[in-house]
Automatic annotation (TrEMBL):
Pfam families in the record: PDH_N (PF02153)
Lineage: Archaea, Methanobacteriati, Methanobacteriota, Stenosarchaea group, Halobacteria
Taxonomic superkingdom: Archaea
Record keywords, A-Z: Oxidoreductase
Keyword Cytoplasm listed: no
Residue intervals of the Prephenate dehydrogenase nucleotide-binding domain: 26-115
InterPro entries: 6-PGluconate_DH-like_C_sf, NAD(P)-bd_dom_sf, PDH_N, Preph/Arog_dehydrog
GO molecular function: NAD+ binding; prephenate dehydrogenase (NAD+) activity
Keyword Coiled coil recorded: no
Organism the protein comes from: Halococcus hamelinensis 100A6
Protein name, per record: Prephenate dehydrogenase
One Gene Ontology biological process: tyrosine biosynthetic process
Length: 248
């Protein structure tokens, strides 16, 4: 089997490295040819031009969320048997693949981790299964934990686990003073470490996530409620939050 990975950044390289370990031949295409060449050299494989007319058993799109819809249309002719995306959103790419590759296998994947933290859980929408997507899933499952979902369920969950979470952590990072480590508590220490982890990522990637999923306004509104609360109101908010956590 041979695959074209469109987008030779960290996620594209991770995907290519995993599937390549099972013997799949991988080619990279990227808006920056040097990045595609570097990925091919690092992972094993080859680089091809972004406007290649070559056809592949499968095409994996590892492009920014904002580019996935157009990428599906552009690279549909390159996919002989299957199209896959690892963009981080699901409703949009799945719908686009249904439109542009209706007669081919379709698989949407969201690794719920940065490539540097692999392996981990992977959300899966197997929209049209077949031999190519089955082989990809089997390869990923050797070290990761795939689980089935739907595009709508996934995207609703991302509102909390990505958009709201990132907004809350970034707000903390912007509001926090630099405090000597000896003062940190069992709560503030891990939160500061979490902020460091978020801030070590790509600003562009986090901006794409915030644009794709709602949730920031709710975090801001909750912070305003806390800021405006007196002692009794604060206790009420505390109990409300504890109740919400208990219901999850």
């Amino acid at each position: 089997m041979n695959l074209l990975v469109v987008g030779a950044g960290a996620m594209g390289r991770w995907f290519a490295d995993v599937v390549g370990s099972a013997g799949t031949e991988v080619a990279f295409a990227d808006t920056d040819p040097d990045v595609a060449t570097a990925a091919a050299d690092a992972v094993g494989g080859r680089a091809v031009a972004l406007d290649t007319t070559e056809r592949f058993d499968g095409v994996c799109l590892a492009v920014p969320i904002s580019a996935v819809e157009s990428a599906v249309a552009t690279f549909a002719p390159r996919a002989e048997r299957a199209m896959v995306d690892v963009t981080g959103t699901m409703a949009t790419p799945v719908e686009a693949m249904r439109t542009h590759v209706p007669d081919r296998e379709r698989l949407s994947l969201h690794p719920l981790f940065a490539p540097g933290n692999a392996p981990g859980r992977i959300a899966v929408v197997d929209d049209a299964a077949g031999p190519v997507t089955d082989e990809i899933r089997e390869t990923l499952a050797r070290e990761n934990e795939p689980f089935e979902t739907t595009p709508d369920e996934h995207d609703r969950a991302m509102t909390t686990v990505q958009a709201r979470t990132h907004a809350a952590v970034l707000a903390y990072a912007l509001a926090a003073d630099d405090v000597p480590d000896r003062f940190h508590t069992p709560i503030s220490g891990p939160l500061s470490e979490l902020a460091d982890q978020v801030l070590s990522g790509s600003p562009g990637v986090y901006a794409e996530i915030q644009t794709a999923f709602d949730g920031t306004d709710e975090v801001a509104a909750a912070a305003e409620r806390i800021a405006a609360a007196g002692p009794e109101e604060f206790e009420a908010l505390y109990r409300e939050a504890r109740g919400s956590v208990g219901e999850r």
